[in-house]
Specification:
There is one protein chain. The protein is built from ten helices and 13 strands. The chain is α/β, with parallel strands linked by helices and 301 residues long. It has a single domain, classed as Protocatechuate 4,5-dioxygenase, Chain B (3-Layer(aba) Sandwich). Helix 7 packs across helix 9.
Length: 301
């Protein structure tokens, strides 16, 4: 099926972890900020591997934008390159409005490679625009708060983050990342999701939101026909219309912990703007019984 083919195209090689796409080094190098960066494993992203962008036949209209002076600090974005134009425009919109020092990326752990509830590592990602580094200090702090060791085996083939890193490099060349892969499919382990939210809360105080951005890498309705997808997305939209710590349950997606984390970090004044809403069938015209849907949104105060 089309969506499965798209997802599979992101995996350089899950079995064996693709030595061609993971390089190790033990020396110190200087990053884009002129700082010394620890050289953890280096992962080549799709734009350096020459992967082809899937063809599309439709472009969804822009729905809405946050107000001009809004403080945007979090958002949802697809990790399917079929929606590459919307991914690009989402990052572009953020870059027009603010700088980001560290992107906190919560992505699904798709391939059963995680042995912990949360997977982290000190990775580097190679893109056409340069190398994107992990924020080592923050990654260590989050791993300690969650009580987990690093899991380097998770990330070389994980399109939940690898699909997005080239856009961070393009629009935020000095930004670093803190990536956390989670078991994203329902049912949600609320205790674990709450612990993750608590570990991130110190970085998203009023002051922290000025430096950091919470990126929820997620796709929404999966494996349904058009009518079923519309039904599920109508429910998911309830959260975007009225984001709160009670409406998050309406979201049907492959990153429920990420949505829960946002719901716990919301303030009374937080609102959401859905920039684009579309699905794989609209974009490709293929696989009308195996549809994945996408919400590109920004949360703001």
């Amino acid at each position: 099926m089309f969506c499965k083919r798209i997802a599979a195209s992101y995996i350089p090689l899950v079995v064996g972890l693709a030595a061609a796409t993971v390089l190790f080094a033990g020396c110190q190098k200087t990053d884009a900020r002129g700082q010394q960066a620890n050289t953890g494993q280096l992962i080549k992203t799709w734009d350096t591997l020459g992967e082809e962008i899937p063809p599309v036949i439709y472009e969804p209209p822009l729905e809405t934008l946050p107000p001009a002076k809004a403080d945007i600090w979090a958002g949802t974005v697809s990790h399917h390159l079929l929606a590459y134009k919307q991914i690009d425009r989402w990052f572009s919109e953020i870059a027009k409005r603010r700088k980001v020092e560290t992107f906190f990326v919560i992505c699904p752990s798709h391939y059963g490679l995680s042995s912990q509830e949360w997977s982290l590592d000190n990775c580097r990602w190679e893109t056409k625009n340069g190398i994107v580094y992990t924020d080592e200090k923050i990654e260590r702090e989050i791993a300690a708060a969650l009580g987990v060791p690093y899991e380097p085996q998770v990330f070389p083939g994980e399109h939940g983050v690898n699909a997005l890193i080239p856009y961070i490099s393009r629009y935020f060349p000095k930004a670093k990342v803190c990536v956390i892969a989670v078991h994203g499919e329902p049912p949600l382990n609320q205790k674990n999701a709450h612990k993750l939210a608590d570990s991130l809360a110190p970085y998203f105080s009023e002051q922290g939101r000025r430096k950091n951005f919470l990126l929820i890498s997620t796709d929404f309705a999966h494996h349904g026909d058009f009518e079923g997808t519309v039904f599920k997305d109508t429910r998911s939209r309830e959260f975007f219309k009225n984001p709160s710590d009670s409406t998050w349950v309406f979201c049907g997606c492959d990153n429920r912990p990420g949505i829960y984390v946002i719901s716990r970090l919301l303030t009374r004044d937080t609102k959401n703007a859905v920039l684009y809403h579309t699905n794989s069938f609209e974009l490709s015209g293929l696989d009308g019984n195996d549809i994945t849907s996408y919400f590109f949104s920004l949360f703001y105060n």
